[in-house]
Design goal:
Layout lengths: L2 E12 L2 E12 L3 E5 L6 H9 L6 E6 L2 E2 L7 E4 L3 H4 L6 H11 L4 H14 L15 H14 L4 E5 L7 H18 L3 E4 L3 H7 L2 E5 L10 E6 L10 H4 L1 H11 L5
Parallel strand pairs: 3-8, 3-9, 6-7, 7-8
Antiparallel strand pairs: 1-2, 1-4, 4-5, 9-10
């Protein structure tokens, strides 16, 4: 399989304390990998190391076999706080255009690409609105559209639906799953929600807090062979879903 991202014995220390003990993980092209674990186990910091925002204390991060030394336009990062991720004085279309400006895409090509990604996430009719005129779910779609506009090889998502209500969250889960299938996206997705991880992921990585030599950070790496496309009701009632949920639940306990 084509490995997009490789974490090789990556360790993270903050304030003199080991947050993440040496951990290895590969993410393959077209794969959706979810990362779960209790607060403080290093999920977000690991994601930021994968993005090149943070240098690990030990080990190495490579993308397509090349060391990750800093942020790249090949990697898109979707933050949890969509309100701060968007510029309030720019319209939806102009917020999406930020990615194209950074990539120095010629002006003549921008309009068509913006239209295409806004149509993809169901926001074409809202292109001229400002973030304050949109719901939380729609604002998060704008952030996802901006990431899609840069045509990334890898999308890193840090609890992107955590601040949304249950109905909006489920809607965006299905929207994201559709985009991954249709566009062959490669995604690494951090969440506190175990059911969300199982619903979206091809694999789930479970991390534990306060690692020790006997109990390292990487507690489990589990395949999720549930049929695609998934359904909010029938998938969650599947005996395999329930078994995996029970198996993974222990890793969310503090």
């Amino acid at each position: 399989m084509d490995t997009v991202l490789e974490l090789d014995q990556v360790a993270i220390r903050l304030g003199g304390r080991e947050i993440l003990s040496p951990t290895s993980l590969n993410v393959h092209r077209g794969e959706f990998v979810c990362v779960i674990g209790p607060s403080g186990c290093g999920k977000t910091t690991l994601l930021r190391a994968a993005a090149g925002f943070f240098t690990p204390a030990a080990g190495r991060v490579t993308r397509h076999g090349k060391p990750v030394t800093g942020p790249s336009r090949e990697v898109a990062f979707v933050f949890q706080d969509y309100g701060r991720a968007l510029l309030p004085w720019r319209t939806v279309a102009r917020n999406v255009e930020l990615a194209l400006e950074a990539a120095r895409v010629p002006q003549a090509e921008r309009h068509a690409r913006i239209d295409r990604v806004l149509t993809t996430v169901g926001l074409a009719a809202h292109a001229h609105k400002f973030p304050s005129q949109l719901s939380g779910g729609m604002q998060q779609r704008v952030q996802i559209a901006r990431c899609l506009a840069q045509q990334p090889q890898l999308m890193l998502m840090d609890e992107p639906f955590g601040a949304l209500d249950a109905q909006t969250r489920e809607s965006l889960q299905d929207e994201l799953a559709r985009l991954v299938r249709e566009q062959g996206l490669t995604v690494m997705f951090v969440t506190h929600d175990l059911e969300e991880a199982l619903y979206l992921g091809d694999r789930v990585v479970a991390l534990r807090a306060n690692p020790t030599p006997d109990k390292p950070s990487l507690a489990a790496l589990i395949n999720v062979p549930l049929a695609q496309p998934r359904h909010q009701l029938t998938t969650r009632e599947d005996p395999l879903f329930l078994r995996l949920r029970r198996e993974l639940y222990q890793y969310l306990e503090h």
